[in-house]
Each structure stands twice: as C-alpha cells, then as structure tokens.
C-alpha cells in the first residue's frame, strides 16, 4: 500500500497537529510557571515542550519521506482551555494519558496492518515517551495541590540552580543562603 492512500497518512497528519499544539501549549504553561516564580518547574516543562515539537517532526518527516503532500484534510478536535497552572497540568495529564495508552498504540496497530513497520515503531516509541510525560505531569500537579514542590518526606539535598549551593533539608530554603535566589530556583525532586 502507498502511504498517500492509507489511513496511516491521516493518523500521521493528525498526530503532527496534536504534537505541534501540545508543544505550544506547554510553552504557554512554562511561561505561566515562570511568571509565578517557579523557574525549575518551568525549565522541566520547557524540556517536555521541546520533546513534543520533536515528535511532531518525526511524524512530519514520515510524510515528507514518502513524497509529501500539498494538503491533507482531516477532521479533529483540539482543546482550548487552561487559565491556571493546575488547569494546564490537568489537561496535559488527560492528553498524555490518551496518547500513551489509546491513540498511539491504536495508530501503531493500523500502521503495522497497512505494512508501515517503521511508522508503527515511531508511534510505539513516542507512546512510551508520553507515558513518561504523564508521570512527570502527575507528579507536578500533585506537588501543586499539596504545596509540596519543595518539601521532602526525608532529609533531601536541595540544589540552587542559580549558584549551585546545596543543603540537606526537609524543606527547601525560602531564599538561597548563598546567592539569595528564590525557592523557585531550587532543583525539583522528580521521581
Ligand atoms: Fe509527544
Ligand atoms: Fe508528551
């Protein structure tokens, strides 16, 4: 089967659009975090945003490699919500979960059935990354809900991302004892 006549080309185009939007939405979230002083959390979200942009590129390249297309038409819905950090984390969790466990595994199966092994493998690999994103967003939302982003259950080494100061504590400092950077610059205790 040629890619241009397949269901897989539509799935690639839809996935490209979804990933491109996720990348942009996470940039909005990173800015929101930064504006509220959560600098290391913002940095983490920026890395995830970049991951999504790369996923978009992987899907885009599969289409281009097969000869490209002037226009691929499809119908899809996309979310337009998220005014707070918590809202945006919740939306990210919902989307990452769908991609990791429903959408991409299904698209991988269809690609396999249509004979596009390499494309199927990309969907599977990206699904695994989305599962990692899901875990990160779950962790972050939980920290925000419990106000525990800079609290640990046992003595833990916090690092100031600005000056490198370290100290083993239960709660990170309000301002870094060495350089005065705010708590938002402390390293995240990501699992
Ligand atoms: Fe992605
Ligand atoms: Fe993701």
Question: What's a concise summary of this model?
Answer:
With 191 residues, the chain is mainly alpha-helical. The protein contains four helices and two strands.
Structural write-up:
This protein folds into two domains: 3-146, Up-down Bundle (Ferritin), CATH 1.20.1260.10; 151-185. The chain has four helices and two strands. The chain has helices at residues 7-35, 39-65, 85-113, 117-146, and strands at residues 151-159, 166-171. It has a two-stranded antiparallel sheet with strand order 1-2. It binds fe (ii) ion (2 copies). One fe (ii) ion (FE2) is lined by residues 19, 22, 52, 55, 126, 130.
Identify the CATH homologous superfamily of the largest domain: Ferritin, core subunit, four-helix bundle
Q: Mind telling me the CATH class of the largest domain?
A: Mainly Alpha
Query: What number of structural domains do the residues give?
Result: 2
- The CATH architecture of the largest domain is Up-down Bundle
CATH topology of the largest domain: Ferritin
Shape call: elongated
Class by SSE composition: mainly alpha
Number of helices, where a helix is a run of at least 4 consecutive DSSP H or I residues: 4
Low-confidence stretches: none
Record the strand order, biggest sheet.
Answer: 1-2
Rg: 20 Å
Helix content: 55-70%
Topology as H/E string? HHHHEE
The largest β sheet comes out as: 2 strands, antiparallel
Counted beta strands:
2
């Amino acid at each position: 089967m040629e890619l241009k006549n397949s269901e897989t080309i539509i799935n690639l185009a839809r996935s490209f659009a979804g990933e491109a939007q996720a990348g942009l939405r996470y940039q909005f979230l990173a800015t929101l975090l930064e504006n509220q002083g959560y600098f290391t959390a913002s940095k983490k979200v920026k890395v995830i945003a970049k991951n999504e942009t790369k996923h978009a590129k992987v899907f885009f390249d599969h289409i281009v490699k097969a000869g490209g297309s002037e226009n691929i038409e499809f119908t899809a819905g996309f979310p337009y919500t998220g005014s707070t950090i918590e809202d945006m984390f919740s939306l990210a969790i919902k989307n990452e979960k769908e991609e990791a466990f429903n959408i991409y595994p299904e698209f991988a199966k269809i690609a396999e059935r249509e004979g596009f092994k390499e494309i199927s493998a990309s969907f599977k690999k990206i699904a695994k990354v989305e599962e990692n994103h899901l875990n990160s967003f779950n962790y972050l939302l939980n920290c925000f809900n419990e106000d525990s982003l800079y609290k640990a259950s046992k003595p833990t080494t916090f690092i100031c991302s600005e000056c490198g100061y370290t100290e083993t504590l239960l709660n990170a400092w309000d301002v870094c004892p060495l350089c005065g950077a705010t708590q938002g610059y402390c390293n995240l205790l990501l699992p």
